[in-house]
């Protein structure tokens, strides 16, 4: 049975992608900071699937002890790591001239350092099973949206991390993928009109295609994977 570890799976894209994989019979290890929300999500993700195939572990990916719990949960082998958990940083979002550097350090800890640490922890198993890593990025990594600078910096760093990792690990597929705007709590917290954005299930279906078809390592956009522009 294929096993996937998905962070930030209590809502939005993480939850929707987990549900896609559960329907395909994957064994899932999922996490999120809110234990109650994660428990509810695990029940929804399971649907008609065997509940024994879903392990939910609440915690913060920036916490080394929590990451150790996740690694132990996939000790039997891992085929896919999805680094989806992330934070906007301080809201309301600031222009770079007013962005507190200490807050930016916390954003980097969640959006860049935690994914790298988790990759390091599970990479031996992924190499053994010729697995894959999906790092969820953003168009904010490459576009100059005002007030999105702090978040965009972290996603740009995650993209370059992925780019170098792909060169260093030819036996592991490494994808860094932009889901586009989605109707999520995160987009709403950023002050954007989330209700006008597509549901996260659309990006999840596109990323499911990425996992299923296993194209070469590289940067992908959900819109392109879905065959739209």
Automatic annotation (TrEMBL):
Query: Which keywords, in A-to-Z order, does the entry hold?
Result: Oxidoreductase
Q: Which Pfam families match?
A: adh_short
One GO molecular function term? oxidoreductase activity
Q: Does the keyword Transport apply?
A: no
Q: Which Gene3D superfamilies match?
A: NAD(P)-binding Rossmann-like Domain (3.40.50.720)
Q: Name one GO cellular component term.
A: membrane
What organism is recorded for this protein?
Actinomadura spongiicola
Q: Which InterPro entries match?
A: NAD(P)-bd_dom_sf, SDR_fam
- Give the family from UniProt: Belongs to the short-chain dehydrogenases/reductases (SDR) family.
The protein depicted here goes by the name SDR family NAD(P)-dependent oxidoreductase
């Amino acid at each position: 049975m294929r096993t996937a570890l998905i962070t930030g799976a209590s809502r939005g894209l993480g939850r929707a992608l987990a549900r896609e994989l559960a329907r395909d019979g994957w064994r899932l290890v999922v996490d999120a900071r809110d234990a109650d929300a994660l428990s509810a999500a695990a029940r929804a993700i399971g649907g008609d699937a065997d509940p024994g195939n879903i392990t939910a572990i609440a915690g913060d990916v920036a916490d080394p002890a929590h990451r150790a719990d996740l690694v132990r949960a996939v000790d039997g082998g891992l085929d896919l790591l999805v680094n989806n958990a992330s934070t906007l940083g301080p809201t309301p979002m600031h222009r770079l001239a007013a962005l507190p550097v200490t807050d930016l350090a916390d954003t980097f800890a969640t959006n860049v350092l935690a994914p790298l640490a988790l990759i390091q922890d599970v990479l031996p198993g992924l190499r053994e099973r010729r697995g894959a890593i999906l790092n969820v990025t953003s168009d904010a990594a490459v576009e100059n949206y005002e007030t999105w600078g702090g978040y965009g910096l972290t996603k740009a760093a995650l993209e370059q991390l992925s780019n170098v990792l792909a060169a260093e690990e030819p036996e592991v597929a490494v994808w860094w993928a932009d889901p586009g705007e989605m109707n999520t709590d995160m987009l709403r917290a950023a002050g954007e009109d989330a209700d006008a954005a597509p549901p996260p299930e659309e990006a999840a279906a596109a990323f499911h295609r990425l996992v299923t078809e296993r194209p070469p390592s590289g940067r992908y956009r959900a819109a392109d994977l879905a065959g739209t522009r």
